């Protein structure tokens, strides 16, 4: 039976790299805390995030409201906690969709080559020529503001990077001996691409996914800030920052705390992504 190359050495390097990397552990702890807060939001949040109390509007941080209240008297801490659910869900689902579609496009394009490869690369070059936020803005504006459309818009902006990452190793791998042996044994193209080429590039795609998830969360916050995210009253970090700008002079805490939440999430994802990349990069271990 034809076998692909093993990945056990990569697992060992990954463990060693994380064990000796303080930033990796900081990222893991931060990300785990944010994920737990999102998952257990109904148990952790002290108040209902959409419950209004006009009598206590724009109260500064206190023992009753740790992060203050907004213009409608809603608890900012509860809204930040619930906002993590939207950001993480949108970021994760958008990256998964982009990873699957982009990887399939890249592998097929690199394996088939010829005219198909040139056409696909031309389309990807056009997509990459647009800034991520601008492309996401155009797609979200056409689709309309909703959770599903937001995920679709962000996923489309991330397809091109994954396709590029999948295409390059496919071109190299299709010339390897074990792929040539598979062709000689009569294996179909789908089997060769799915069972023997993809597993040997999966680690690279995962690295890109972990790092581009931070970009997806930033894009989600930006689109929510300009009103193209999840419609209110659902709590999102970007929408909270936008609402806070209307009262920034008298209520500084409204835009500050959701901004800090975005900053910590993006930092955690970048720390973890950088550590995975360093662990799986052969050049790092060759020095």
Describe what this molecule looks like in 3D.
It contains 13 helices and no strands. 73% of the residues lie in helices and 0% in strands. It has helices spanning 8-19, 22-39, 41-44, 76-112, 114-129, 132-143, 147-173, 177-184, 189-197, 202-225, 237-245, 253-280, 282-286. It has 287 residues and is an all-alpha fold. Helix 7 packs antiparallel against helix 10 and helix 11 packs antiparallel against helix 12. The two termini are 36 Å apart.
Question: What's the topology here?
Answer:
Elements: H1 8-19, H2 22-39, H3 41-44, H4 76-112, H5 114-129, H6 132-143, H7 147-173, H8 177-184, H9 189-197, H10 202-225, H11 237-245, H12 253-280, H13 282-286
Tell me the Rg in angstroms. 22 Å
Task: Provide the structure class.
Answer: mainly alpha
Give a short account of the largest sheet: none
Give me the number of helical elements: 13
β-strand amount: under 5%
């Amino acid at each position: 039976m034809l076998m692909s190359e093993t990945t056990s050495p990569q697992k060992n390097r990954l463990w060693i790299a994380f064990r000796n990397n303080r930033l990796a552990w900081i990222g893991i702890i931060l990300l785990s805390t944010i994920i737990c807060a999102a998952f257990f939001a109904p148990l952790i949040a002290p108040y209902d995030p959409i419950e209004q109390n006009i009598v206590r509007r724009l109260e500064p941080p206190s023992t009753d409201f740790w992060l203050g209240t907004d213009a409608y008297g809603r608890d900012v801490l509860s809204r930040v906690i619930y906002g993590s659910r939207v950001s993480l869900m949108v970021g994760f689902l958008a990256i998964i969709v982009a990873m699957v579609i982009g990887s399939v496009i890249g592998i097929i394009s690199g394996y088939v080559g010829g005219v198909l490869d040139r056409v696909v690369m031309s389309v990807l070059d056009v997509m990459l020529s647009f800034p991520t936020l601008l492309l996401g803005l155009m797609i979200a504006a056409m689709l309309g503001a909703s959770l599903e459309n937001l995920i679709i818009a962000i996923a489309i902006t991330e397809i091109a990077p994954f396709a590029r990452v999948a295409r390059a190793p496919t071109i190299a791998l299709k010339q390897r001996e074990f792929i040539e042996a598979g062709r000689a044994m009569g294996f179909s193209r789908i089997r060769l691409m799915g069972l023997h080429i993809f597993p040997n590039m999966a680690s690279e795609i995962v690295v890109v996914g972990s790092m581009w998830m931070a970009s997806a969360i930033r894009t989600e916050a930006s689109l929510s800030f300009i009103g193209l995210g999840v419609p209110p009253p659902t709590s999102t970090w970007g929408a909270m920052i936008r609402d806070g700008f209307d009262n920034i002079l008298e209520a500084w805490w409204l835009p500050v705390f959701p901004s800090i939440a975005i900053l910590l999430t993006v930092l955690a994802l970048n720390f973890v992504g950088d550590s995975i990349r360093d662990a799986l990069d052969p050049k790092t271990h060759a020095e």
